[in-house]
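Chapter summary example.
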Amino acid sequence: MERRTIGARALAVGAVGLGCMPMSWAYSGSRQRGEESLRAVHRALDLGSTLLDTADMYGPFTNELLVGRVLKERREDAFVSTKVGLLVGEQHIVANGRPGYVKRACDASLRRLQADVIDLYQLHRADPEVPVEETWGAMAELVQAGKVRALGLCAVGARGGRRSGGRLHDATIKQLQRVQQVFPVSAVEAELSVWSPEALESLVPWCEARDVGFLAAMPLGNGFLTGTLTPGEGFEPDDVRARHPRFTAEMMAANQPIVAGLRRIAARHGDVTPAQVALAWVLGQGRHVVPVPGTKQERWVAQNAASVRLSLTAQDLAEVAELPGARGSWD
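The structure predicted for these 331 residues follows.
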């Protein structure tokens, strides 16, 4: 697979990564099967999708344990990204950016991952009670201690910015400017897809100008852009899409023209799927951009990896640009 670099330190990864979260958390618990997920991770590494993206909060903890079972056998084949800064309770999630906690959390992640070093350690969310510089400073000490190779930042959740009129990623860029004064940022992870292109406005260019890698989260629109979801079919209560404003039956039906457009483009390329068109579009947004589609099945891992071979034409790109904007229940 084509290789891309993350950050000024030129950390090389496969052009398409693997989001491991759906294997353990947030998506349809009844469909989560450990052995099937392990096969998916092995398949990704076989195909060159070396970036494995996890977090201590996924599960919580169980996703890192699952990834660790693969790393025990194939550590040299993988580029491991995990995250710190969020704690999961019974009915809530809270941020914890205290330096002592960050260091203890890193040690715990290393044990679960059965690894000596984390390739990319990302701050999941800044703690409003702790200056972000203090949290980042503790993470930088982990690099100096040899426990972490590079640091990354996940974008501030700001979907409401669409309604307020503010630029969606202003808060993230302000955080990035602050932490860059403490220790270099190697990567930023944020949502980017055909139906959520807002990061292209300011965040992707900010990264490109500074040799910072951009990890495109949810590049398949939480599965919608694959064209495999049926409006009105519903989701299990523990599935995040059950509460997502774009996944009500009405809005899924309203957004079908987006999938139809991807299907038209795919049809011109032969044996190609809408998902591969969506990933090829993300890959085309810059050499520093690495899509990280989440899945727990081998067949989707293989399909996603194959998207690197799809070159979209000028006509294809023009058609994507003309697709209607995604609608949510707030619209």
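To summarize the output: Residues 99-113 form the longest helix (15 residues).
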